[in-house]
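Long-time lurker, first post. I've been practising inverse folding by hand and with some scripts of my own, and I keep getting stuck on stretches where the structure tokens seem ambiguous. Below is the full token string for one chain I'm working on. Before anyone asks, I'm not after the true native sequence, just a reasonable design that respects the backbone. If someone could post their per-position residues I'd love to compare against what I wrote down in my notebook.
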């Protein structure tokens, strides 16, 4: 190839490269940018965001769980049916004048600030009648000067108290203007068939959060938690772990059929809020109380006229019961319903109208469902066998019952355990003509009664408990000195010598002794004494 051909080839290559560079420059070159004028802000180029796909675009098909789907539908259906029947209750009460702006002298030292004349609190209630009756807790409406009821559909009504029952912490209020206003009414269930482990929903207004629904199970039945401040309190609560908080009081506890089974009343807590332990009054007791409050303004309640206590394992062993069951009768009111029916001190009440009784609060609840003059059937364990007795209950205004209540100091049933007596009585206090029987096994001293003591204790026979040694088995079991021993194992005591023989025989056999005593305050009480040999088993 000659020199001229090489030069022509290089020239063509250079021209090609130049044309290629020019073409790339034209393609990539943006639209002409206007010349920037001094002092102006630079122009902002618009940006175009590329769409971003969120979430899995090809999810797997949902796994079918028919049981959970059905349960979910059930929960929703119950909540939709019951929530309209649960109301928000706002209460105004006279202001507490003990401190701060509620002090009656507040205006004197703060003349420009007006003291509060009332305070507001809130709770829940359940509509139980189309005529405008609402059941709630007594403590929700206590001392109310004004009650405002707010329905789930935002309607508001003024309400007035129909009646209050302090023994169950229940109350009924009435909305007069709501009578005939097409109110939603709850369906009542049967708390007697409720079982532990059953699903329940709690519906109320905790912390003023209206129409709140929580779920849980029935944790226990027949609970007594000593939260009702009344001497004759009746506590037979349903326990649940459904969340119940301040403001739920008076609200509904319902089963999965949408039936009201309890009225939320209290919580057990150290923080003041939900910790998993809520309590509700069973609906059967609620129905009984609410019916009487609407009809009479008070509860017409029947009384049997007995003092009772729980049966212990030692009691069951001593009395020949095959298990710990029933409640032990420690005292019977003279001429009361129990005495007329043939109930005796020392009997064990096993059932009322066929319903088994295993604790004092269950007994109280069963009796609380009855009215004066109602006939009941008592199943009683006595002398190693069971028998049935028929009793007709008496009313609170019965003279015999009133006399008995006055005698025991109106402390309710069952009475609290008696406080041990003052201790040993010095020997010089014993009359010279009366022998002292010292029972070393029990740690007590007995003697016969003086004439003055017979008059003071209103007794003809018995053995005076002259002393109870500190640290003895009798002292450990709470037997008080200064009381009169009137019966041992159901057999009347006629003298100190007789009582000492019986008690020594029981101690030698290594058994237990149920003794009845008349205390110096006039109260008859029972003590279950364990002999040293029995305690060492």
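-- Answer (accepted) --
I ran through it position by position. Result:
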């Amino acid at each position: 190839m000659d020199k001229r051909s090489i030069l022509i080839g290089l020239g063509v290559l250079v021209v090609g490269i130049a044309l290629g560079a020019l073409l790339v420059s034209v393609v990539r070159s943006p639209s002409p940018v206007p010349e920037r004028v001094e002092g102006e802000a630079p122009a902002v180029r618009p940006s175009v965001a590329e769409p971003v796909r969120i979430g899995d675009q090809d999810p797997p098909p949902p796994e079918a769980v028919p049981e959970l789907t059905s349960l979910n539908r059930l929960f929703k259906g119950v909540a939709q049916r019951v929530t309209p029947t649960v109301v928000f209750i706002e209460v105004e009460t006279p202001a507490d004048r003990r401190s701060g702006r509620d002090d009656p002298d507040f205006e004197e030292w703060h003349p420009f600030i007006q003291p509060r004349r009332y305070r507001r609190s809130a709770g829940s209630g359940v509509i139980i009648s189309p005529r405008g009756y609402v059941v709630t807790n007594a403590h929700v409406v206590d001392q109310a000067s004004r009650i405002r009821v707010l329905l789930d559909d935002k309607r508001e009504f003024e309400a007035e108290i129909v009646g209050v029952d302090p023994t169950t912490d229940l109350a009924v209020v009435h909305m007069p203007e709501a009578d005939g206003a097409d109110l939603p009414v709850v369906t009542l269930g049967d708390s007697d068939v409720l079982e532990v482990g059953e699903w329940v929903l709690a519906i109320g207004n905790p912390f003023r959060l209206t129409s709140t629904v929580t779920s849980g199970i029935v944790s226990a039945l027949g609970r007594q938690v000593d939260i009702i401040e009344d001497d004759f309190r009746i506590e037979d609560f349903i326990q649940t772990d459904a969340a119940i908080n301040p403001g739920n009081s008076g609200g509904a506890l319902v089963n999965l059929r949408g039936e009201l089974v309890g009225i939320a009343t209290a919580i057990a807590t150290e923080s003041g809020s939900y910790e998993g332990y809520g309590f509700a009054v069973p609906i059967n007791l609620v129905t009984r109380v609410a019916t009487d409050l609407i009809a009479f303004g008070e509860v017409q309640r029947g009384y049997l006229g007995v003092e009772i206590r729980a049966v212990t394992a030692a009691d069951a062993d001593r009395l020949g019961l095959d298990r710990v069951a029933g409640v032990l009768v420690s005292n019977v009111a003279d001429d009361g319903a129990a005495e007329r029916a043939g109930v005796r001190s020392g009997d064990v009440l096993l059932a009322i109208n066929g319903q088994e009784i295993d604790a004092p609060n269950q007994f109280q609840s069963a009796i609380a469902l009855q009215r004066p003059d109602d006939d009941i059937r008592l199943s009683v364990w006595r002398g190693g066998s069971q028998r049935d007795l028929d009793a007709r209950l008496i009313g609170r205004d019965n003279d015999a019952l009133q006399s008995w209540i006055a005698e025991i100091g109106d402390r309710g049933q069952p009475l609290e355990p008696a406080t041990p007596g003052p201790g040993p009585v010095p020997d010089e206090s014993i009359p010279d003509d009366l022998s002292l029987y010292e029972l070393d096994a029990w740690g007590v001293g007995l003697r016969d009664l003086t004439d003055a003591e017979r008059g003071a204790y209103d007794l003809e026979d018995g053995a005076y408990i002259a002393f109870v040694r500190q640290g003895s088995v009798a002292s450990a079991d709470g037997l008080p000195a200064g009381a009169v021993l009137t019966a041992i194992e159901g057999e009347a005591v006629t003298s100190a010598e007789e009582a000492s023989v019986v008690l020594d025989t029981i101690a030698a056999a290594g058994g237990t002794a149920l003794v009845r005593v008349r205390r110096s305050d006039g109260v008859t009480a029972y003590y279950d004494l364990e002999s040293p040999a029995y305690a060492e088993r």
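A couple of notes from the structure itself: Residues 3-28 form the longest helix (26 residues). The chain has 13 helices and 26 strands. Happy to go over any region you disagree with.
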